[in-house]
From TrEMBL:
<feature type="compositionally biased region" description="Basic and acidic residues">
    <location>
        <begin position="264"/>
        <end position="275"/>
    </location>
</feature>
<dbReference type="InterPro" id="IPR046768">
    <property type="entry name" value="ExoX-like_C"/>
</dbReference>
<protein>
    <recommendedName>
        <fullName>Exodeoxyribonuclease X-like C-terminal domain-containing protein</fullName>
    </recommendedName>
</protein>
<feature type="domain" description="Exodeoxyribonuclease X-like C-terminal">
    <location>
        <begin position="217"/>
        <end position="245"/>
    </location>
</feature>
<feature type="region of interest" description="Disordered">
    <location>
        <begin position="264"/>
        <end position="285"/>
    </location>
</feature>
<dbReference type="Pfam" id="PF20600">
    <property type="entry name" value="ExoX-like_C"/>
</dbReference>
Length: 285
């Protein structure tokens, strides 16, 4: 019986191959390659796509890039809930969403996306000290890339992130649908920007006067020094960073230090090029 089924399957595959116009397939594959080349040419690196650290070398398609692709080819997204859970009592929220891309009213591709409050970036928050009532031995201790020590504790205000979790599920479904247009998954990976965005946002929100002064600089002759030390030695450089730094965490930390006036205002040496962040060296300041 199994041999008969195998023969039937092989015959079906052979029949399918025989019915295909090879010339048409070659033409379609060429169009797909041209389409992918057009997409890569018209998307902006660092804005529409980018390589996320730890995610391999293949570029990640970001939400602005997905939206631009839809505009270029007249695709309109529509969303529907496949499943949703909103438990305000126990603090659990989950959304499973389907995104369908339409062109002239006809469906072109579909994608699904899920997000829930048990994901690590939503479930926990980073604090400077372990609150009373929480066993320190159960808390994960981390050192941020800015040199500050944080402790991960359960988020006591998880309900405040309901809208964020919902939007993340929609974005994942959207990017999944876009990547299926003309095999764009050959060019880009799934949208991994949310982790980077969330961590950056979390750092910005949690900065206070103490943590601002403890943030370490990893460029220029001040490399290895904290912003607090630099504020005391060359406060004008902190003022310059506040106005020019692209890193939102450093920018906000410098603003806190400047506003608090942690050092005496005195004449200091002019900022030299080697003191500048790498991305601003060799540029007019």
């Amino acid at each position: 019986m199994e041999n008969q089924l195998e023969i039937v399957k092989n015959n079906q595959v052979t029949s399918l191959i025989d019915s295909v116009d090879i010339g048409t397939i070659q033409g379609t594959m060429q169009k797909i390659a041209t389409f992918q080349a057009v997409i890569q040419k018209n998307l902006k690196d660092g804005h529409d796509f980018g390589v996320v650290a730890g995610a391999g070398s293949k570029p990640t398609l970001l939400k602005p890039g997905g939206e631009k692709i839809c505009m270029m080819f007249g695709l309109n997204p529509e969303y529907e809930f496949l499943e949703r859970t909103e438990d305000y009592k126990d603090g659990f929220f989950a959304y499973n969403i389907k995104c369908t891309l339409y062109r002239n009213g006809n469906p072109v591709s579909q994608g699904v996306g899920n997000c829930n409050s048990m994901e690590k970036k939503y479930r926990y928050i980073n604090v400077d000290a372990v609150p009373d009532g929480i066993d320190p031995s159960t808390v994960e201790k981390i050192t941020t890339r800015y040199g500050t020590v944080k402790y991960k504790i359960p988020n006591p205000h998880i309900a405040d992130l309901v809208n964020t979790i919902l939007k993340m599920a929609k974005k994942r479904a959207f990017i999944d649908a876009v990547l299926q247009v003309a095999s764009l998954s050959d060019v880009f990976t799934q949208d991994l920007e949310e982790m980077q965005e969330f961590l950056q946002q979390e750092h910005v929100q949690n900065i206070d006067e103490n943590s601002a002064g403890n943030i370490k600089i990893n460029f220029g002759k001040n490399k290895g020094k904290t912003l607090g030390q630099i504020m005391k030695e060359t406060p004008n450089y902190i003022d310059w960073l506040m106005k020019n730094a692209k890193d939102q965490v450093i920018q906000k930390a410098c603003k806190i230090l400047v506003d608090k006036g942690l050092s005496k205002k005195e004449d200091t040496p002019e900022t030299k090029e080697e003191d500048l962040p790498p991305f601003l060296q060799d540029q007019e300041v």
